[in-house]
Specification:
12 helices; single chain; six-stranded antiparallel beta barrel; alpha+beta; 30% helix
């Protein structure tokens, strides 16, 4: 590497935002170098969505899309007006990658493989003559006369450029290289950093029975959060996945930040309603009908007409009803107990799992220090900040990657 070269653009970080920014800057004619600490690019990208990669969310109305970012959405109108879901899908489609829409408008490659997304980005950079310097951790942003002039590598080499894009990500899944390195560099040059905390993270529970149904998922259930037996304003419906130590799945991930906040003030219980379309009275009648129809069969076997068979032994056990009992022997009191349980399975929250299991982290560069028309730092006109480095909350469902595509494209264009 010739240290005398002054590049047009340095991108630090070879994740989705960094690769998009690098390809776009190269496409605009800039001489671009992308610096990556890992041996390979896009380590986290390749494991997103369980390796399937939830590319974006199929919502073309920016106003509705940005509502999902809550209060942070008001910062994003300008950048999303330049590049949003339609432009993202056009980008991948014109490069030969098909997509499909699944539940909750989640968009995946038709190949069901994140490798397809990775391939498009790498080919985009290659076509636009981006130089990639891998296995090269950055340790410092170099500032001279209130201007960013380059970066210093761990091996003490200096790489200089006219513009720099920081795309190093947050602190989630640190084994992929996301260890929050840039937060200290940015703090050192005067940026305000909101302390990162895990967001979109699975929940560990105290109830040991979940281990027995690890891998089982339930769809269309209602999830309500209680603290000190008081219902909280945290209620969602959707899918839940049982794990060896607790619960996960899209709906739980999207509730995790609120659960984490509540845990600071006392014990938290997650209540699962397995049959939200039926009220207590309707469910009681339904059970009576089932028990009459299958009066000689075991209760456990008959419950599988209502709920997945994998969880029926758990329900019977939690109800303290004899697992060998036949339907014609179930008392009224026991039936009402079952009704209550099917509408309210309690899970005692132990903790949120850490950054090593988080899909994303909250925290990062304060948003009022970024010009979202260009993704420029308001402190340094040739410094650009993109993707997970920003303090932007968003739910599971393709919103994180869309943020990367959008901010990466706009930064690459302007840098």
């Amino acid at each position: 590497m010739n240290e005398d070269i002054i590049w047009d653009v340095i991108i630090v970080g070879g994740g989705p935002a960094g690769m998009m920014a690098a390809g776009k800057a190269g496409e605009k004619g800039a001489r671009v170098i992308l610096i990556e600490k890992n041996k390979t690019l896009g380590k986290k990208l390749l494991i997103t969505g369980g390796g399937r990669c939830n590319v974006t969310n199929y919502e073309f109305d920016n106003r509705k899309l940005l509502e999902k970012f809550k209060d942070d959405g008001k910062f994003l109108f300008s950048v999303f007006s330049q590049w949003s879901v339609k432009e993202t899908l056009d980008f991948f489609h014109t490069k030969g990658m098909g997509t499909k829409v699944e539940n909750e408008l989640r968009v995946f490659p038709t190949s069901n493989s994140a490798q397809s997304v990775w391939n498009v980005l790498v080919e985009y950079m290659q076509k636009n003559n981006v130089t990639v310097l891998s296995n090269s951790p950055v340790v410092e942003i170099i500032r001279e006369n209130n201007k960013i002039v380059g970066v210093k590598l761990k091996n003490s080499k200096i790489i200089r450029s006219n513009s720099i894009i920081i795309a190093t990500g947050g602190t989630s899944r640190p084994e992929t290289g996301s260890t929050g390195d840039a937060y200290s560099w940015l703090k050192n040059i005067g940026h305000k950093i909101i302390e990162p905390t895990p967001s979109l993270v699975p929940i560990a529970v105290k109830d040991t029975w979940v281990k027995r149904i690890a891998g089982v998922s339930l769809t269309d259930i209602k999830i309500t959060i209680f603290q000190n037996n008081e219902k909280q304003n945290v209620i969602k419906s959707g899918k839940i996945l049982f794990t060896h130590i607790g619960v996960s799945g899209p709906t739980i991930l999207n509730m995790s930040k609120d659960i984490g906040e509540l845990l600071k003030y006392g014990p938290v219980t997650i209540s699962l309603d397995l049959l939200p379309t039926k009220n207590y009275g309707e469910l009681n009648i339904k059970l009576q009908e089932l028990f009459k129809e299958h009066d000689k069969k075991k209760l456990q076997n008959v419950l599988s007409n209502l709920i997945p068979s994998a969880i029926t032994p758990i329900i019977v056990e939690l109800s303290n009803i004899n697992k060998e009992i036949k339907c014609n022997s179930v008392s009224r009191e026991e039936r009402l107990k079952l009704v209550h349980l099917l509408k309210n399975i309690p899970l005692q929250v132990e903790k949120l799992l850490g950054v090593e299991k988080a899909i994303i982290t909250s925290g990062g560069v304060s948003l009022d220090e970024v010009d979202f028309k260009t993704m420029r730092s308001r402190l340094f006109p040739n410094l650009y900040l993109v993707g997970d480095i920003l303090n932007i909350d968003r739910p599971s469902g393709g919103y994180s990657l869309q943020l990367c595509w959008t901010t990466g494209f706009v930064a690459g264009t302007n840098a």
